[in-house]
Amino acid sequence: MVEQHVQEAKVPRAWQRFALVADGGNIRLRVASYYFYKACRLEQAGSAPSEFLAEILLNLAKTLEALFPATGHRGSRDTVRDNLRALGYSDDEMESCFLPAMALRDELDVAHISLASFDGEQLGTIFRYAESAQQYFRVLLQRLFDASAAKSFTLEPYEDTGPRQQAAVLLNRLSGRYGRAQPNG
Predict the structure, then answer these.
(1) Which of 88, 145, 148, 185 has the lowest tally of Cβ within 10 angstroms?
(2) Does residue 109 register a pLDDT over 70?
(3) Number of C-alpha atoms within 13 angstroms, CB side, residue 9?
């Protein structure tokens, strides 16, 4: 439990940092904070450690990809490595604290069906990583807020290009049936 005076001391700093993510602020930092919040909230809401494990890992991976999007020929993990290195993280920290979120997201049943069974030791390792990763990601976001406020690190600018072509085609197809609210009755 956090003492009240400790929480109250954080309010002025949080208020000063609000402009970094408010409308007109850094959308990458705002979206990454949202995905991190979702991961933490899912961990708290679960009735068992495994209930939302895949979704927690998904949201941690999305946190990294919102902050550090793949560019050009560089893959998303390499781009994350480059940016974490620029923030002062060691190779060991990157490979053991952050990149497992992306690797586990890709290898577990996050977005694709998997009927694989993991033994207790394997599941325990995954649970312990997911639990400890939240603290690593929290510190990363604090570092990015500090660096953004000091203008010592710049995240890749976000340019809204609208929905991807495949999404636009799908939405156009669905709009005939679901596009407008139908009157009741």
Answers:
(1) 185
(2) no
(3) 5
Within the chain, strands assigned E span none
Which residues 6+ apart lie within 8 Å of 26 measured at CB? 20, 148, 155
**For 134-160, how does the pLDDT look when each residue is reduced to its tens digit (9 = 90+)?**
999 999 999 999 999 899 998 888 887
The helix/strand/coil state of 105 is: helix
pTM of the model as a whole: 0.82
Instruction: Check if the beta carbon of residue 47 is closer than 8 Å to that of residue 155.
Output: no
Reported confidence tier of residue 163, pLDDT bands at 50, 70, 90:
confident
List the structure tokens of 161: 């290009």
CA 143 to chain centre: 15
Residue 49 has what DSSP assignment?
T
Q: Which residue has the tokens 């710049």?
A: 154
